[in-house]
Specification:
This protein is α/β, with parallel strands linked by helices. It has helices spanning 10-19, 36-46, 62-72, 87-95, 108-142, 145-156, 161-170, 193-197, 203-221, 247-262, 280-292, 436-445, 448-465, 470-492, 496-509, 522-548, 550-561, 568-574, 579-590, 594-609, 617-623, 629-640, 644-652; strands spanning 2-6, 29-33, 50-53, 77-82, 100-103, 180-186, 224-229, 235-240, 268-270, 274-275, 303-305, 342-347, 364-369, 385-391, 400-403.
Amino acid sequence: MKALIVDDEARVRKAVRLLVDWEAHQIEEILEAGNGNEAIGLIRREKPALVIMDMMMESGSGLELMTWVDEFAGSTKFIVVSGHNDFDFVRQTVRHGGIDYILKPIEPDMINSAVSKAVSAWRAEEAERSHRQHQSLRLNEIKPIFGEKLLSALIDDRVNAEASLRRLIHDGIIPPDIKISRLLLVQTDSGNNPLLRRFGGDSELLYYAIVNICNEFLQQQGTGIAFRYWGGPPEIAILLWEPHESVTSLISRMNQGIFLTLQFRMHFGISTPGAFPAHLPAGRAEAAEALLRRNLLRHEDYCHYAGAEALPGGGTSMGAGTVAGVGTDVGAATGGVTGSGTGEVTSRKSGAGAATGGLTGTGTGEVTSRKSGAGAATGGLTGSGTGEVTGRKSGAGAATGNGAGAVTGREPGTIPGGKQRDKRESTIPLSFADVQEDWRLAVISGTPEALTAAAQHWTQELSRRGVVTPQMLNDWKADALLLRSRLVREALGSQAASVLAELEHGDQQNPSPQPSGYSFSLFAWRDWSLAFMQQLSRALAARQQKERNPMTEIVKYIEQNYPSDLSLQEVAGKFQVSREYVSRRFKQEYGINFSDYIVSVRIEKAKLLMQNPGLKLAQISEMVGFHDVKYFSKVFKKHTGHSPKDYRDQAEH
């Protein structure tokens, strides 16, 4: 077991080392850090079980450190040792799961008691984590992986799909008479640390729990099955056939069950209905696309439909029976369904999403979708005469009535559930091209004000326009990386590759928020974009400053002209600086004086030339700027410890 002591005073760290009976607590290794930032690096690398920290430090406070530990190293226990009897500090310690708050000067009994309590808590939780891991292994052995792989084969293995279907029907996993189905995908987020911690960091166990919860609702009515999809990245899929309620209603009930168990609600991507099993591969792509195109600003929406059903006035509910109520499903017709008359729904082309439902009053009601993606769903038609609702174009949702009481499927300006559509969503979504020039100018200027304004502007514009999707954020990030690459290459030319490599390494330390995570925060993206631009601006400024440094050019000049009789006066005059400046900067940057630097360059070049056995020492001496071979031999031995002849003999052997 490891422990880490964090305090900016070495004497306090030494005191803690001496006061704690480490052996009694079975702590074998004690680490030290002088501030919170250093401690975070040690915790990431060494993963100590216990951290004893000061609250007030110059670089990286104890409050910041305990907040980080609580979020990213939840299994680590910490004790605060502070000279401040501040109730707010104590409260923050308790809120973040601290074991104890000890005031300086430190009492041996008190700190040993706190360490004992922390070690006991860590060991108990470690035992629980170990138990859960063993339980996970057992569950993985018990759960029907074979059935999940058969279901996955229906989606991604066309060669074996027919055999998989026969086996699934034979084993009673799905019924034999499925004609039409939908495929749903449940949004998963591997970066959700609080949720994963509840499962000991085991994402497979988390997926297993979600699948079980969904199946509790699906198996009540025998209308579908949830399973872990094995054909690609980690996904939870739901195969749905002939539900006895709207898809939206079913998802709402499943989500409530997930929330009661996990305190999280999940997002669902929903494909259009299609022939089973032929439509499943396309259905999975549709569901994934629906999740990528969900509006992250609409936090309360958890059902994300593909195709025409995602549009106002579009689509229908597969297998929902009669259409009743306002907004019971995206794409379901709005309005009551009563009385006599004829209801007819016609889908003339694929993707229209047909639905059945009665029409109110006397006369005839007809719903026609003439083109793929047309607004097929209608409300009830009331009164006498003929009511006709026609979706003639993709997403139109248009309605015309011949007679009294014609009702449209869904007004343009409304959203599922009958709520008024936010007018902001009618504006054109923001693209990176709209703010690219702001970012470029901010990076080039490098001023905190310009960088902050650029970071705030784009997130404010995203919020104002009312539409942010995971796909947009992925595209934004890709465009930002392209802008960075272009700016670096334009500014640095041949030096760009090394700078871009450094920046890419920095991306690992400052990763962007997850575009497809459970939660979304514009503030997190603003902070990321600010850090992204700051890092780029600093890299460009530092390298350009180096390029503008006369010493860089002077060194290049020496490398190219070392065989010549270079003098301090000549070099200083060529670069229009004083002799004193050159002499001082050489001493500062290279630790040697000007003439010694020239000699060192000549000796290094001579070493390379000595590898050619055809060159005599006199020739080499002349080629590197020494006109006297004896003097060359003397200088060479002084710098290398070997005569040129001995050095060459060693190199040959």
